[in-house]
Amino acid sequence: MKQKKKQKPAKQPFSMDLMWRQRYLLLMSVPFVIWVIIFKYIPLWGWTMAFQEVVPKSFALPVWQRKFVGFDNFIQAFTDRLFAQTMINTIGISILGIFIGTAAAILFALFLNELRMKKFKQFTQTVSYLPHFVSWVIIASIAKMLLNDGGAIETMFGVNFHLMSTNSPLFWIVVCIINVWKEVGWDAIIYLSAMAGIDQGIYEAAKVDGANRFQQMWHITLPGIKPTAVVLLIMSVGSALNVGMERQMLLSNGIVQDHAMVLSWFAYIRGIGSNNYGIGTAIGMFQSVVGIILLFIANKVAGMIGESKLV
Fold first, then answer.
1. How many CA atoms lie within 13 A of 304 on its CB side?
2. pTM given for the model
3. What local confidence, expressed as pLDDT, does residue 72 receive?
4. 203 CB neighbour count, 10 Å cutoff
5. What is the pLDDT of residues 211-226, one digit of tens each?
6. Do 274 and 296 form a contact (C-beta atoms < 8 A)?
7. How far apart are CA 130 and CA 122, in angstroms?
8. Alpha helices in the chain (DSSP H)
9. How far apart, in whole angstroms, are the C-alpha atoms of residue 159 and residue 143?
10. What phi-psi label fits residue 148: left (phi over 0), alpha (psi between -120 and 50 degrees) or beta?
11. What gap in Å lies between CA 268 and CA 290, rounded to an integer?
12. How far apart are CA 10 and CA 94, in angstroms?
C-alpha cells in the first residue's frame, strides 16, 4: 500500500477575529515594531547620501540642496585600487568564518551535551562564553602576545610560524580561529537549547536498540538540531559582507594589511577618513543590498532542498 503524504497544517486565514484572539501577542510586539521602525527603517533615509556629493562643507545642507551625482560614488568605489582585494578578503574571511564557526559551535555543543557531570558541564559552559563579553582590544592584545614574532608561541616551541606577519590568506585563518575562540561558547548556547528540545524518549528507544552514544549523536541529536543550524546558516550568509572591521584593525599590521582590509574598513577609510561621506554610504548600501540578495538566495536554496526557511 502506498503511504499517504503528510499534509501540512492549513494556515489560518487573516481575519479580524484572529487578530482579536491574538490581541495580547500583537500588543506585546508593538514596542519592538516601533523600535525597528525608528532605529532600522527611518535611518535608511541616509542612503540618499550615496547619490550625492557629501563633504564636510555640504554635510549641514538640507538633502535637496546637495549636489546630485547619480552613481558616481559607486563607480568611484568600485574602481578604487583597493576594492577588488577588499572584496576577496571579505568573502574569504566570511566563508571561513561561517564554516569554521558553525562547525566548532555544533561540535562544542554536542560534546558539552554529552557531559554527565552537571557541575563540570556548567563550569565549562560558563568559562566558554565569557570571552564573548571581552573587548576585541583585549583579545587582540592577548593574540599578539601569543602569535607575534618573539611571542609566547615562538618562545615555547622555538619555531616562528609567522602567523601575524605573513602577507597571505593564512591571516584569514588566524583571524577566524581567534574569533571562534572568542565566540564558540556563546554560539553553542542556541544549539544546546535545540538539543534540550529533542524528545528524550527517542534516546531511550535508541539505547534499547543497542545504539552507543556516538550513534545517538549522529542519528538523533544532529538531525534534531538540523533545522536550527540551517536557519542560523541562512542568517550568516545574509551578513556575509558585514565583516566587522574592529578585529581586522586590531589584529593586523602594516605587513598583513593587504589581506586584512574588509569592506567595512574600506568604507571607513574612503568615507570618514577621506571626508567623502557619499562614498562611504555607497559602500555601506552595496553591502546591505548584496546581503539581502544573498539572504533570499540562501533561503530559497534551503526551501528547495526541503530544509527550514526563514520566510
1. 6
2. 0.82
3. 93
4. 16
5. 888 899 999 999 999 8
6. no
7. 12
8. 16-21, 23-36, 72-78, 83-114, 118-129, 136-147, 152-157, 170-196, 200-208, 213-216, 222-238, 245-251, 263-268, 277-304
9. 17
10. beta
11. 18
12. 38
